[in-house]
Design brief:
alpha+beta
Length: 74
């Protein structure tokens, strides 16, 4: 190949990581994707303890969503 051929060859660019998505999810060691449960930001003082405890913790995404997210961040 000549010098011109090497510089004209199209190279696929690297995909950028979706930074907003990275801030909202957590990926475990086994490639499981978790997110925060909804409805726990404000207006929670009138809820009883059972509802508040149910909203705590992370929630695992579906396998279809996991596949799409892992593709988007790598």
């Amino acid at each position: 190949m000549s010098f011109v051929d090497l510089h004209c060859k199209k190279i696929m660019p690297k995909l950028k990581t979706k930074k907003a998505l990275i801030k909202k999810i957590k990926i475990t060691k086994n490639k499981k994707v978790t997110r925060r449960k909804t409805g726990h930001n404000h207006y929670n003082s009138k809820e009883n303890g059972k509802v508040g405890r149910a909203k705590k913790g992370d929630m695992r995404l579906s396998k279809a969503d996991e596949k799409n997210i892992l593709k988007a961040i790598h």
